[in-house]
Design a protein that fits this description.
This protein is mainly alpha-helical and 140 residues long. It has a domain of 46 residues. The protein is built from 3 helices and no strands.
């Protein structure tokens, strides 16, 4: 099988046509600029609010206070410190008492967190309920 080569037809230009296109600058086709494409707006799938529109805000006062509280509690704990080989009875007793105190504080902290989360859940449920009742009351 022999491959067939097809050549495109040659364009025929005469000298006058070529000269006239170069000499007639005022009559040349104008290049139309395309309008600038609008930036695509990214929308958050979670909230439906456009992203990168509002400036990033810093921490609120409450969040900053929580961060300092968390950073203060990151001190080395008694339970993570190794015990000495030559530990006397009194040192052992003091170390064990410190561990007990630490665990007691942790239990109190955990209970406070549970209560705070329960209260927040109740608050959010009330807010959603109020929102639903207000929407039902609206007449369109």
């Amino acid at each position: 099988m022999v491959p067939v080569v097809v050549e495109p037809p040659e364009e025929k230009w005469d000298c006058e046509t070529i000269i006239s296109t170069y000499s007639n600058l005022y009559n040349r086709p104008k290049v139309i600029e395309e309008p600038a494409k609008p930036k695509s707006i990214r929308v958050s799938s979670k909230t439906g609010i456009p992203l990168d529109v509002l400036p990033n805000r810093g921490l609120t006062a409450k969040q900053a206070e929580r961060m300092t509280r968390i950073n203060d509690s990151d001190l080395p704990r008694v339970s993570t410190q190794p015990r000495g080989r030559e530990e006397s009875r009194e040192e052992r007793k003091a170390r064990k008492q410190a561990i007990k105190e630490e665990r007691k504080e942790r239990r109190v902290e955990k209970k406070a967190n549970k209560m705070a989360f329960k209260e927040e859940k109740v608050r959010q449920e009330k807010q959603m309920l109020n929102l639903r009742t207000n929407v039902q009351g609206l007449k369109l």
